[in-house]
């Protein structure tokens, strides 16, 4: 992996073998547009990467585990798991 120190490479290989990487597809894009419109209309816009994260959770019907309640609680009907 590019940028990974040799002693960390094995850790990251094992880590990514155990997680599912969710795709950014049309459904995620549609949710991102919807979330952006909702947040803009209430003047509570958040950063684009956070919108993409929330949109991915919505598109896949998954709760979002986060430490960043401040941003994600602004999104209507987003299931959040506080960690």
From TrEMBL:
Annotated PIN domain residues: 11-76
Matches recorded under PANTHER family: RIBONUCLEASE VAPC2
GO MF terms, alphabetically ordered: hydrolase activity; metal ion binding; nuclease activity
SUPFAM superfamilies: PIN domain-like
InterPro entries assigned: PIN-like_dom_sf (IPR029060), PIN_dom (IPR002716), Type_II_TA_system_RNase (IPR050556)
Domain of life: Bacteria
Family: Belongs to the PINc/VapC protein family.
Protein keywords: Hydrolase, Magnesium, Metal-binding, Nuclease, Toxin-antitoxin system
Gene3D superfamilies assigned to the protein according to its UniProt record, in alphabetical order: 5'-nuclease
Pfam families named in the record: PIN (PF01850)
Cofactor(s) needed: Mg(2+)
Secretion signal span: none
Protein's UniProt name: PIN domain-containing protein
């Amino acid at each position: 992996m590019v940028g990974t120190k040799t002693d960390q490479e094995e850790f990251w290989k094992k880590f990514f073998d155990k997680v599912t990487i969710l795709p950014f597809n049309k459904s995620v894009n549609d949710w991102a547009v919807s979330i952006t419109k909702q947040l803009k209309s209430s003047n509570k816009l958040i950063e684009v990467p956070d919108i993409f994260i929330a949109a991915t959770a919505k598109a896949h019907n998954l709760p979002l585990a986060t430490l960043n309640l401040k941003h994600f609680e602004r999104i209507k009907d987003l299931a959040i798991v506080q960690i």
